[in-house]
Amino acid sequence: MKTTFAPVVLPLLTLFAASAAASPQPDSIRRLDGTTITVADAETFAAKTLQAARVTGAQIAVLDRGRLVWSAAFGFRRLEPRLPMDRETTTWAASITKSVFATYVMQLVERGEFDLDIPVAAQLPKPLNSYDAYRETASDLVNDPAWAAVTPRMLLAHTAGLANFAFLEPDKKIHLHFKPGTQFRYSGEGINLVQFAIEQKKQRLLDQLMHEAFFAPLGMTRTGIIYRTDFAANVADRYDSEERFRAQTKRFPARAAGSMTTSAEDLGRFASALFSGKILKPATRKAMLTPFIRLRSLHQFAIAPNEGEGLEAPAVGLAYGVGWGLLTKTRFGPAFFKEGHGDGAQDYMICFERRQACMILLTNSDNGELAFRPLLETILGNTVTPWEWEGYTPAYIEASRKNQ
């Protein structure tokens, strides 16, 4: 089924619920190098690019100097019947959840309510495998002497040694694959372990905690760690690379590794608040975005054994901090980023600290990543994302599909 794109461009919303008046929409967007692209040209280019890549629906938001300057929606949130994607459609953020969650963790750290460097085992009142949630999966982990050294900081920086998820292990159990803190290996399991430790400490569920910490105060009315019934009238279904229906976007239960649904504008509100110090003090934000491990790998997720190192990572100072990927040496200054990748949802968010400039892309399509590089380069002027490392090249996407 071929999707016909028409951008849905509504009057810009204010960044925060307390603001009384919307900012006027500019005629152009200032790129990172100081050149500009008109809003009309940005909309036309985005529509053509998304259609060429067969992306069912998408939202794009751009911030400059910490404020939302452009936002648009394209394509469809549902194909049968055809319902347009709009700027308030709730979409699946997938793994962008991890970074928003890490920011919440830093808020707890700032208040002295959680410690990143005390091992998780020492922060739990009883062994991990004595909890029902981990009774079947954590026995080998708890019996590994190295488990006693695993800290929340290691887990949030993907350096603890865990596989992405226990269900991907041959025995469906959690294991450490190297000395904690010494290597990078992306792990959603590790992020969920930090969630579990916090929920035990706070004796409350994550969706309640993050709604009170971020979503309600910032006016993020289209965002939840779990699906809410008030999203029902405007939520995006998800589609595969042939635009066949995959699933509705109703995420349960709360998972810090990837259950959040949101909109690009809501993530813009979050980023603006992060820059302005509304959710973290500048020193805390700096600590979150300080490299914990430097990366040199060819890909974030290898598609061949023993791939070795690549040239992109050291060229841009690729690193990982607390829950965020980092570019530490680009001609536009340092940046932090996070991608989201799930069935029928491909997303990307990057922010450059010096200009407080961000671009956020959310899609409800397995083809979303095919459009990311041209959109980011043409609209934001972002030429520094490590495209091969991210897997945003056609060759990598094709290879990864064959390996599925």
Could you give a short description of this structure?
With 404 residues, this protein is α+β, with helices and mostly antiparallel strands.
Care to describe what's here?
The protein is α+β, with helices and mostly antiparallel strands. The chain is 30% helix and 17% strand. The strands form 4 sheets. Strands 5-4-3-15-14-13-12-11-10 form a 9-stranded antiparallel sheet, with helices on both faces. Helix 1 runs antiparallel to helix 11. It is globular.
List the helices and strands and how they pair.
Elements: E1 28-30, E2 36-38, H1 39-52, E3 57-64, E4 67-79, E5 82-84, E6 91-92, H2 96-110, H3 120-123, H4 139-143, H5 152-156, H6 188-202, H7 206-215, E7 238-239, E8 245-247, E9 261-262, H8 264-276, H9 282-288, E10 293-294, H10 312-316, E11 318-320, E12 325-327, E13 335-342, E14 345-352, E15 357-363, H11 368-380, H12 387-390, H13 394-403
Antiparallel strand pairs: 1-2, 3-4, 3-15, 4-5, 6-9, 7-8, 10-11, 11-12, 12-13, 13-14, 14-15
Helix pairs in contact: 1-11
Output the keywords.
single chain, 13 helices, 30% helix, two-stranded antiparallel ribbon, 404 residues, alpha+beta
